Protein 1
Amino acid sequence: MTTNNENSTSNGKEREPKMTADQGVKTNSLSAVANARGEKKAGSNPMGSGLEARGVHAWFGKHHALSNVTLDFFSGTVTALIGPSGCGKSTFIRTLNRMHEFIPSAAFAGEVLLDGKDVYEKGTDVTKIRLQIGMVFQKPNPFPSMTIGENVLSGLHLSQIKMGKAEKEELLESCLVRAGLWNEVKDRLGAHGGSLSGGQQQRLCIARSLAVNPKVLLMDEPCSALDPGSTLRIEETISQLSSTMTIVIVTHNMQQAARVSDYTGFFLSDGGPGELIESGPTAQMFSRPRDERTENYVSGRFG
Amino acid sequence: MPSKPWQRTPREILPSLAILFLSLILVIGVVEFTGMKGKLAYIGLFIPVGTAAQFFWSLYKYGMKAAKDVIASSIMMTGAIAVFLPVVSILLTTFIKGLPGISISLFTNDMGKASFTDPVGMGGLLHSLVGTLYLILISVLISVPMGLLTALYLTEIRGPGSRFIQFMVQAMSGVPSVVAGLFIFSAVILTTPLDTSGFVASLALSILMIPTVTRASQEVLLLIPNDLREAGLAMGATQWRTVAMIVVPAAKSGLITASILGVARIAGETAPLIFTLGGADKLNPNPVNGLQSALPFYIWTGFRLGTQESVQRSWSAILVLLVVVLTLFTLARVLGSNSKVAK
């Protein structure tokens, strides 16, 4: 599962859409990028039914931040959430693993079904939900008091999962391999997480999320603090992970959405609460969107 | 050849030094030949004269910006010296006056058989040293857990009553130390079977130490980025485990500093001990039963008795107290930075 660095980098360069031409061409190149991905059909993966959001509303105090979002995330696919700032993408993604409720004034309505079970059902153990729905944040945030190895395995200690020493080492390696970080850190697992570069730290955070074997991985703008090279590595990691889990990624970067996702959801707020304007297969969203606002956004006319 | 163009060359510095030297001579002359007297006159005159001379030289040589820089630098330097001088003076005086009384017998004897007029070597401060160590130990055992848990409640849990507790902590940190002693005297000694002892004195010191530890710990915990808490919670951890495994370890060295600040607050306290410790002359290794002594208390009594010998013993005790506190601080720092993680 180790990646060939040079090969993939050159691949990525080819995939990078040319941005010099005018807006119309940009749409075309984006849809070309999106079309270049092999299309994944819903239900093509026998890993359960994935994650479904049903009529999700979110409030911060009296402010209605998100209105009536219904969106399915099929297992084994990558879904990108795009939209301008303040449209509720991040709020939405945080309702999916119940991180939303940590904001003191937050309120919620609707259902989020994980394999058919509502995660907001009364009596649900929130910590169990978060074990199944992992999260990667915008800023890389490895735990500063832990080494690289301890960071990866921190999920086990945090959620009190017992495991033998040999198993732990195996898990450590497999997580780092899956996150595409093993080759860079295998000789210094005892070093501080903070000694890594930003991109490496973010991949360490991905490896950390993988250790508890979640079914779903939520990524809230995971590359917005990273340089293009690191972004590319993360995108490769996402592509590789998508065969084994459901991935939801919030991004401001439409090229990124086109490159990594199978499905795309477009959020927009016209002053009121954020809404899901349109969702569908990524190739369709970028080449022939149904809604005019989506068309305007993906063609770069606003946002 | 690497160069540092932003630094002045010796040739540029030399005139400045010469000007400072000239103004020093001028100041000495003025003080000698006018009615002014004392060290303060030299300092009070040299600062403005030297600054002014430098100001005009810089103005002439480098222009207005450099001249303004001279004024600003001079104000900073004056401030720094004003802060630094008392510290140096305290340390120097303590060493000069305390060192002659330091001997092995000082650490092996107590004042049980010695009278305050006996030669310095006859008496000692063993009983006070032991007492102070007990006081610090018991106060730390009471105050650090309480202060730390209060800080965690206020910053992590933010549960009911947080604002009231915050207010109380702030009010407590303003309690005069003698009042803390009086409070324990009336609340513990007068109403319970407990009599003046090391433990009761530690209770009084804890009243001073808890708010210090709490507020310093709070500051440290607030510095821990929220990302880390969210990351922990998103990994399926309970709040308790997130705090215990991520927040507290990340804040460890700061929390140790907070505890040190607490120890610093109480190590030299004398007033609360007057009502609560008793003040023994003999070594008493039992902090729960019987009178004990402490170094600040010993120092205070020594100066109050006023004989040459007891004053000398007091100066030496000040030196010992300084060294004890310094040792504890260093120890805590070393333990705090002793991380198993390789850098």
Protein 2
Amino acid sequence: MSSSDQARSKDEIAATVAHDIAGEHPHGAYVNLGIGQPTLVADHLPDGAGVVLHTENGMLNMGPAASEDEVDADLINAGKQPVTELPGAAYFHQADSFAMMRGGHLDVCVLGAFEVSAGGDLANWHTADADAIPAVGGAMDLAIGAKQVWVMMSLFDKQGRPKLVPECTHPLTGVGCVSRVYTDLGTFDITPDGVRVREATGTTSEEIRKRLDEIAWL
Amino acid sequence: MSAQVLGSADEAVAATQDGATVLVGGFGMAGMPTDLIDALIRQGAGDLTVVSNNAGNGDTGLAALLAAGRVRKVVCSFPRQTDSWVFDGLYRAGEVELEVVPQGNLAERMRAAGAGIGAFFSPTAHGTPLAEGKETREIGGQTYVLEYPIHGDLALIKAHVADRMGNLVYYKTARNFGPVMATAAATVAVQVHRLVETGELDPEAVVTPSIYVDRIVPIGEVDG
């Protein structure tokens, strides 16, 4: 069975995102990868794609994870993991780092999500469970700041409920900010006129539309 | 007044009063001014409002200040982490108040305080629970939320090198909130890895100019 006949793994989703970043930004791009699943995208960016990674805690041209003998406690990514710097790296303070986001200077950010609505609303920071401690970090600034906000998630949660929904049920991170959603079962463009199936994986576009029949499809 | 070079972290925090708002640098433990926080614990001021990106990691630094029961309120962007057990316990027991602020708004609110800005409109958090009840305005077709400055009574930050005047340079991602917090508090105390003579830092490379810095505590090497 080829990979196109089954759902994509997280790594395969990340590879697709990396491929699209490189393909749609032939002269390079400034990209922020959210903590968790999106960090996998870095492993798949083609050499020479000219992608410069931004990390919210104040660095451009962040390099790969630090090997054991490279670990420096003062050189970390947004997930507080030790990383490295590439030639051309720059450090800056938090007000500058978030000005880069809000000011529209980042080409793409890739975020994880609990839910994305057909209108591009994003919910990824808080489950609203009674004993959950709210924590937002830079998610809200990233969501409304980058030129393109892409989401990586599974299309259904562990209980089988869709995560691409007519309206989010979880507290929002940003309104109308997501333009593309990469999932295990396909990739979706969110447009002002509705949601378009860009690619189906291990299933068909018709099957996805049928399973998510509350979405306004294009 | 130019900056004072002090022999101990205790001197730098000696005048802290109960109820003070303390800006604490660091993103996780990177840039966390642990020696200054330990001194603040020994100094004993309580009922503090702490403004920091996180709410403590492990059992040292900000977590130790929380564990000592000195903090009434935490203003931060990301309290919940795998190693934030001290804060988590206090929060669940109702012993500490929490204001969650998106990280960019947190930084910009302190930047505004340091820059004499009365308030500003930010697009961040519009339409989310964190903007509920806040004034909004539509500007150029986009909705913005009114945000107010955060002023500190005291800022505790960490830098890499200071000269004796108080000019600072930082180290890698430990820079994070230091330069912004240095502008936003009435008194700014910095712990530095290295102290050099005035004139030894390249003026083109200074990140925080001396005007913002009040108290310097060398923790590592001292030149000359």
